[in-house]
């Protein structure tokens, strides 16, 4: 899937979303599985796994060292500490830089990223499927309002 102006398509894979997709807790093994399936389904795209560094502590203890190895091997890139506008702002900046290089950017996430089309993720049997061609921009909504319920 070539990019818009002759560039390539860059897929930003949100580690938090994919590792935790339809699970009660995230799994690095699931993230690796999904990334392999994405590369097999769309061999012509560049894949960048982006993450909030706090995901390490949500992973099972047995996977935390493997997550560190992924960072060292540049298989996962984490938002730097103190990033302006948090991880979401950092992902927007990564997307803007890729677009400035002439690439088409698609993100696989459960959040809206301003100006970046979001691709749907689904599973068919044991295989993850990514609808990159059908990626659409999603309107960002305001932050959710959390209210405490009164105990009666």
What does this structure look like?
- This protein is of the alpha/beta class.
- It has one domain (9-136): Rossmann fold.
- Helices cover 34% and strands 24% of the residues.
- It has five helices and six strands; from the N terminus they run βααβααβαβββ.
- Strands 3-2-1-4 form a four-stranded parallel β-sheet, sandwiched between helices.
- A hairpin with a 2-residue loop joins strand 5 (118-124) and strand 6.
- The relative contact order is 0.20.
Sheet of most strands:
4 strands, parallel
The CATH topology comes to Rossmann fold
Q: Output the structural class.
A: alpha/beta
Portion in helices: 25-40%
* Rg calc: 16 Å
Spatial arrangement of strands, main beta sheet: 3-2-1-4
- Give the rounded overall mean pLDDT: 88
CATH class: Alpha Beta
Give the amount of beta strand, in percent. Answer: 15-25%
CATH architecture: 3-Layer(aba) Sandwich
Q: What is the count of structural domains?
A: 1
Task: List the total number of helices.
Answer: 5
Q: Could you spell the SSE succession in H and E letters?
A: EHHEHHEHEEE
